[in-house]
Structure formats: C-alpha cells, structure tokens
Amino acid sequence: MSPDTRPRRGLRLTLAAAIAMTAALTAPAAGAAPATSRDSVPVPGAPGLGDPLFPLDGNGGYTVDRYLLDFDWQAPKTPFRAKATIRATATTELSRFNLDFAGNTLHEVTIDGTPAEAVREGDELIVTPWLPLPRKSTFTVTVTYTADPTQIRHRDDAIEDYGWIPTPSGTVLYPQPNGAKMVFPANDHPSQRAPVTFRVTAPTGLTAVANGRLVSREPLTGGRERWTYDSEQPVSTQLVQMAVGRLTAVDRPTTNGVPLRDFVPDELVDRTDEYLDLTPQHLRWLEQRLGAYPFKRYGVLVGDTDLGVALETQTLSLVPKADLLGTRVDAERTLVHELVHQWFGDSVALRTWSDLWLSEGHARFYERLYSEEHGGDSFEAAMKTAYTNHNLWRRDFGAPAEPTEPNLFKRMRYDGSALVLYALREKVGDETFRKIDRAWVTKYRGRTASTQDFMDLASAVSGQDLASFLRPWLYGPTTPPMPNHPDWVATPVP
C-alpha cells in the first residue's frame, strides 16, 4: 500500500486482545498433529487468532480451502444479493466456529446443505452445526446475505477509508487491513490464505474484474452478464479485489512470460497510457533484483475515486487516478511500489500485522531506489532525512516491528522501515543484501513468514549474526548508529 497521508498516534493492548490471544494459544494450531480419537472432544473454534493488533481477526479450529463468491451486483451504493460458499477443513473437532463478517444483512447459513444456527456478535458470525465437525473433515459453509456496498470504515492513518468504495459507475474494494469482512464472511487475517472464485453478475455494458484469470463471460437474460474469475493461487483476504464499472481492458506487452492487462475507466484510457505503458520496464527491473515474478499475470486497476491510496491487491494493483495524472516520477513511484508488493506482502505473506514493516519497508526501499535511477530524488538523501526523524517516529508510531493498531500505517512503516533495510545494506554490502532479499522471496514464496524468519535467513545468507544488529533497529527505544555514516544524527527525544 502506498499512502498519500502522513503517519500519527498509539494504543494499548486491550483486555479483548488478551482474551483472544489466550483462546488462540489454547486452541489447536492449524496443521497440528491430530489427537487420538479417545481424546477428541468437540470444542469451539477460537474467535480470533490473537494477533496483538487485531486479536479477533481470523478464526481458529479450521482452515479455508477455497472461497466461492457470488455477487448479483446492481448499481453504485445499491444493496444486492450475495452468497459466499466456503470450503474448509476442521483442524480440531468443532462444536462451533466463527467467521469474520461485518454489516450486511444475513439470511441463511448452511453446512453441507443443512441449516445451521448462526448468531452475530459485533464483527463475528458464530456458526453452530447440528452435529460436531470431526477433526480433519472437510465441510462447506454457505452464507446467503444482502451485501451493502455503502459499508465503509475509516482509519486515521495512511489507509483512510476502506471496505466498499464507490465510483461514478460502480465500485472497487479497499479491504486492507481488515475490510474483507465487510464484503464477505471470511477468515480475515493476512496469514490465512485461500484461492477465491468470483462470479459477478452485472448490467450489460459494465465490466467486472477480480484477482486472477477471467474464466468466462456469459450473457444472461434481462440485460445482464456473469463474469467468472479464478485467483489461481491462494490470496490473503486483505488482498482481494473485485471491481465493477465502465472499464476498458488494456493489454500491455507480455513481459518475461507474464501477461499484463490493465483495467482503466473508459474516459481515462488515453490519459493514463503513457505511464501504464511503463509496467514492462518496471517488471524487468525488479526481476533483475528479486528473481521471477511470483504470479501468473499482473495488471493495474485504475481507481476512479478521490481516495488517494494505492493498494497491492494480488495480481491487480489498485492505483487511484490522480497518481497517473501527475508527473512521471510520482506515477512511477506508486506503480513500482505496488508491483514490489507482489513479492513482499502478497507472495510472501505477513505472519502477523507487526511484520508489516517487511512488506511496506521493501516496497518503499525499491520504489526509492528505482526513482533515483529514473529522475527522482536521491535515495541516500531521503534515508538521511528518515534517520533524522527516526527517533520521533519511534516515539509517536512505535518501532518498525512494534506498531500499535492506530499507528500501523504511519510513516514508520514506510520510510522508517526502508531505513532499516538501508542500514542492513550498509552493514553487509549491496551484493549480500541482494542475496538476502532474493533468498527471502524464493524460500518463502507462496508462504507466510515473520520478522524472526527474516533475521534468521539474513544471518544464514550473510554468515554473520544479523539478528543482534537488526533487533535494536526493529524493537529498540532509540535509533542505532547508521553504518558508514557517522555524521548522521537522529533527533534525540527527551
């Protein structure tokens, strides 16, 4: 995600967080070895995964194998019929389980075709089957509801508004950080990934688009069409995208075997072509540094909104129109930033929200590195400025790997985290730094990984203990000295 706003403010861990963390820790972990049958007792799935920042996000007791989303989309800001079919596998014998589900009007929940009891508590949908679900069994939950595309929430950081975001002719999704639950019932945490099939019905003359591959486009009676997309690979719920509107599909040259297709509001095609035509160049530049692009296709969805936030939705980055109507330097910074995320944050997913620095820090690092090479500001000068402010950001927004919930998408997770990577490069040299990053996106491709995983891998690749170097940068109360720059001074905080 690439923000236009300036990052602010802090929060304490709540009692709810502590309760949810306890529940998550005492519940069997996904993929844990099964207990013997005589020890198997039905238990409720944990109502959250215990993430310190969002303790009730995600759910315990099962893993999602696939989402099938049916949206009968009508018009901007107009409720419509929706159905979510969720194939899942129980990781313990379940007496009941939760789905993250906010707003919208619930109609019915079934499990394998049999009606189930469903109770809503805040953003949780608590589902109780008629009989417990055996451990390791697969089951299908179907939730029918009326989707409310006016569902929007607000954050006082770089995210701004999220959820359903209307456009003049349709809608786009801003699900980050946990807005997917406003769109469909989900296991809504970045560590929980599953393939998604979208079936979107919309009026003829509009285009529907979603993550992945267009499987089919079928004319229906009554002046409507059904568009079916398959994500092809598992997706974190924060990276799901589905948009409807007057959009033109624009194919760019296939680059290193990667098909490129953008979706642009009809009236903006000519005005955005010059900058969107640069994606092949961006892709080649990044592949030289990071290795092969990790997905089967890529494109940019141009958001016809006034919301100045870009988003790394998987295989289809959402870029606001304003970012493509200004200078080339600014446009390229956003385009490269979101493309970098396809490796960092999308392919290698976050284990917890505290690992966000790895995603946003790398996106900002390569964005600034590319920009310097293509007419933008000095990378080193930007890092020196970040170093000057780092203690202030550390105080106001938390250390890079210690955010608080209100400060998650503040400046520290962007330039402040890129500075950590800059310090690492200064410590080990450019060649070793490149080996670390390439090893990271290769080893953890298609998996989740944590800050500790990064420190361990960096140490293994470099042959030196980099954990002792990185911990003060990531967790310490003050900013350490910058290697090779003894003249750099971080503003002291009283």
H/I helix tally: 10
Protein structure class? alpha+beta
What is the mean predicted local confidence, pLDDT?
Answer: 93
Overall spatial form: globular
- CATH topology term of the domain at 43-161 and 178-236: Immunoglobulin-like
CATH class of the domain at 43-161 and 178-236: Mainly Beta
Q: Strand content of the residues, in percent?
A: 25-35%
> What is the radius of gyration computed over CA atoms, rounded to a whole number of angstroms?
23 Å
How many E strands? Answer: 25
Report the CATH superfamily of the domain at 43-161 and 178-236. Answer: tricorn interacting facor f3 domain
CATH-level-2 architecture of the domain at 43-161 and 178-236: Sandwich
Low-confidence stretches: 4-38
The biggest sheet amounts to:
8 strands, mixed
Q: Quaternary state, please?
A: single chain
The helix content, as a percent range, equals 25-40%
Distance between the termini: 32 Å
